[in-house]
Sequence to fold (100 residues):
Amino acid sequence: MRRFVVSSLVLAAGAAVGLAQTPAVAAEGTVSVFRTEVESLSVYENPKGCHKLPATAHVLNNDTDGPVRVYGDPFCLGPSVTVAPGYGSHVAPGSGSFSA
Fold:
């Protein structure tokens, strides 16, 4: 039984490492972030990986060909909300991030 448990853990760890090493592919299109009425939009062309949101971010608009995940922390960790292509989402001002 112990051998089975150890083997299962080794296989699970190997799968996790394999998934973590999968190269990220940039989403095609743009992600626009509205901040305030006196600031220009922040536009991310073909975003790839994790991007910290501006401190005054208010609304994120996903005009890419894939989903965008919005996080409450600046490092794309923890729980997230998925924004489908062609949709937008309010984001909390402060320390959020998104990944595509």
In short: The first helix runs from residue 2 to 20.
